[in-house]
User: Fold this.
Amino acid sequence: MNQTEAFHRRIDAALHNDQLRRNFRSALTGIMARRAEQFPDDAQLQALRDQARAVRANALVRQPELLERLERQLTANGIQVHWAEGPDEANAIIHEILARADATSVVKGKSMVSEETGLNHYLEQRGIDVIESDLGEYIIQLAEEPPSHIVAPAIHKNRREVAELFHRFHPEIPYTDDIDQLTQTARAILRDRFATADAGISGVNFAVAETGTLCLVENEGNGRLSTTAPRVHIAITGVEKVIEKLSDVPPLLEILTKSATGQPITTYFNMISKPRQPGELDGPEAVHLVLLDNGRSRIRVDAELLDTLRCIRCGACINHCPVYVQLGGHAYGTVYPGPIGIALEPQRIGIDKVGTLTSACTLCGACGEVCPVRIPLPTLINRLRAEAVDGLRAGATVRGHGSLRKPREARLWGLWAALYGDPTRYRLFIWLASRLRWLTPPWLGAWTRYRSAPRPAARTLRELARDEGFRDE
Amino acid sequence: MSDSRQRILDRLRANRPTDVPTPMVYAKALGWDRERCIAAFSERMQAVRGEVHRMQRDAWVGWLSQQLPERGLHRVLVGNGRIGDALAAVAAQPLQVRRYDRPIESWKPELFGDIDVAVTGARAGLAESGSLVLWPDAEEPRLMSLVPPVHVALLDADRLYENFAALIVAEHWGDGMPTNALLISGPSKTADIEQTLAYGIHGPKELVTLLLE
Ligand code: SF4
Assistant:
């Protein structure tokens, strides 16, 4: 099955799952309203977006210097830095750190980058016990599913589905679908794990080069526990997460939490700069940072596509996407779903592998309007569509460009261009189309699967306008 | 491994994008006076179910020795500084004051299971977002504000800043950071089930700020 067929099959399954669509619709409607409440003043919002964009753009331009500075600063602070080209290398580095530290049980805070590398699976295969400690991540780990949203990983499940999962894995705890009680159940289950885990693994929201500081944004406290209670802490992040100065943090933090969940700030903003120092009584004795490239540095080849890397993973584009709300995250089949997924994944993985994702977009523009760092997502998606069929041969830079080109489609568009590019031909064509409208076939491929075929009007708009006295020029 | 480092950096250097101007330092001066800061801090904190109590600078010991037993919080964790000293000096039955005076490894199960409340100081507060700012250290270690089910923090009202941007600039945070710095805005919470807010997931279920004036 090729990528397009596979994608269509997943779409079909998602569209026929009414419960799933109800879960998404109700969750996203709430998130969008809460985000809007945080930005009552549009001028202030736009100024904040400008600031956030400037911080991220500056960091990307100076990325190699900043990464070196980050490494120097972290090393001076006592944090060990590792570099990984791809998933296998990152996983191997992490496994080696754990093996050397004799660590067999791991608590994880939320990390999308570790989803990229398939870290849990890799470690479990090597006999390491890994438990996700973010409530949403814990739920989908029980269900053996990938996250369906980058901020709210279990957004596709309703309370009854969560209750059934908990009951299946912990039959000793009485069944309940009360959200407060489910939350307390998860607290009780995970508390022991925090107390006993050898190592904690987390993601990073911003890595500050100036001071060598890893910043983590969260509400639950599981991120703080994972990075404080065990004796080893390993953070993993993409190379694009570096920013220059500590003073760059406040605008990013503000717009991140407001855009992501509609909160003025999250419960915890955790800044880690050193392992446990002499005399200190807790905190990990060793802290590691794994910097993962995994296709990111290649994106720099193109000035327009570089914008993709400004992303701070707030998920606002996903929440506002009219396609995502219908499909949910799993249908995309990639680590990152929604508009940012459509823009990023074909660049990271190749158009030949996932380029068909670019069709899951109506170009409505909502994502570009809400993006806190002003990534022109619709423009990027359009650009990737063109590269997919090589409509831009000279400037194409993305791996697998041209791989979705279909000769028949290309011929049809060629014909269209010929007709629309010449007034005489165009007039003749629409005159013929209206006169021969009874020839329209009733079946027009995918279009008529859910709709009836459109039939041209008996007379063209041009003719009608002339009758009304408009001059045809 | 070092090969990967070199390859990644080489690729990044090979494609240097056009320069962009260095971003300005984000300053969001609100011009709030002390009362306005206190009001905003309290309002934001209470909006996320944090308790705020204003009191005289020396009233907190008395307040705690009355309130903690009333709330059934008997096993009290304190640090090794003056807050711990003051509380230990007045604590009487049923309060049992436990000092965080040993490395965590030697008493982890007790910390996770046998403490009702921790009392710490706060380095500063942020009015606009309703946040406590903590720099945990040897005197008041990191897990104090995280593991016990209730966290009480003493905040000097003179230490309220308008927001994070103002604090970072005023205190020159860019010159060097401690092992761990935290902004804490309310008790632990989650919205991972049906986007419905539930409090008290992994961190403290209650956060009480005593605002000292
Ligand atoms: S692309 Fe923009 S809106 Fe989407 S997750 Fe990234 S920062 Fe947020």
Strands of chain A lie at 79-84, 105-108, 129-132, 199-202, 206-208, 213-218, 232-238, 242-243, 268-272, 286-292. Chain A touches chain B through 98 residues (CB under 8 Å). The first helix of chain A runs from residue 3 to 15. Chain A has a mean pLDDT of 94.
